[in-house]
Write a structure and sequence with these properties.
By secondary structure, the protein is of the alpha+beta class. The protein has helices spanning 4-10, 16-24, 57-62, 119-127, 145-153, 191-197, 229-237, and strands spanning 2-3, 28-30, 33-34, 41-42, 49-51, 54-55, 67-72, 100-102, 110-116, 133-140, 167-170, 177-184, 203-211, 214-215, 224-226.
């Protein structure tokens, strides 16, 4: 049994919010009975569900879960809509039906992000504290070793959030910029940018190059590919995908 608005969204008929409006408007029936109460559940294996007179059961049966790995370019929003009309990550992945991003990358951050139509998968992966996310970070100026150790132990940000310990590997710097490999197990909004801001060194370039054991190797910026079944399983269980 699933909520009607979820089933309507899964069938690709409308978003959950739009599905709620359809229900309230009396445009949805279950076994011939009009349903207007939000939260009503139905079983698509047993119940006949219609939206504006059209049966959606076959659409639900035909729907396959999609798991897409995208190497996001800068200048794309990790969302399914934007009132400002900015480019969306979903614009870059076509042919898999209605997808949504798992978590987020900032508008000006590039790198790996997963898009899917599987809400249960999204909830498990987004809530997990076991999946490492590895970033390449270029910062303005050259932070001291003391400052980097402070970040690795965890710091309190301006918004009051205290970061968990992070793995920070110092890479070869230039004359004016520090380079680091940062591994996080959490996903606070703009966390890496805020972390380095807290020690007075703003982030100049940020790229996510690994999620769990899945890397950007062979995947050019702006391109995408399907995750393998083993990769999907590894994200759910926290294990390593088979080679």
């Amino acid at each position: 049994m699933e909520r009607l608005q979820k089933l309507i969204a899964q069938a690709g008929v409308a978003s959950r919010r739009a599905a709620e409006e359809l229900i309230k408007a009396g445009d949805v029936t279950v076994n011939g009975e009009v349903v207007t109460e939000l939260g009503t559940k139905a079983d698509p294996e047993k119940d006949h569900i219609k939206v504006r007179g059209k049966l959606i059961n076959n659409l639900l049966k035909a729907r396959e879960n999609a798991y897409i790995l995208l190497n996001k370019p800068k200048g794309y929003l990790s969302s399914v809509s934007d009132p400002e009309g900015r480019p969306l990550v979903t614009d870059l992945v076509k042919g898999h039906g209605k997808l949504h991003p798992v978590g987020r990358l900032d508008f000006n951050t590039e790198g790996l992000i997963i898009l899917t139509n599987d809400g249960e998968f999204t909830n498990k992966v987004a809530a997990s504290k076991k999946i490492p996310k590895v970033y390449s970070v270029k910062v303005k100026g050259l932070p001291t070793e003391v400052a980097i150790r402070k970040l690795s132990r965890g710091v309190r940000l301006e918004d009051g959030f205290r970061t968990a310990p992070a793995e920070i590997k110092t890479l070869k710097p230039t004359d004016k910029n520090g380079w680091y490999e940062v591994t996080l197990f959490e996903g606070h909004n703009q966390q890496i940018r805020k972390m380095f801001d807290s020690i007075g060194h703003s982030v100049v370039k940020l790229r996510r190059m690994r999620i769990g054991e899945i890397t950007d190797r062979g995947l050019a910026v702006g391109r995408s590919r399907k995750l393998t079944a083993d990769e999907v399983r590894s994200l759910i269980t926290g294990g390593k995908p088979k080679r």
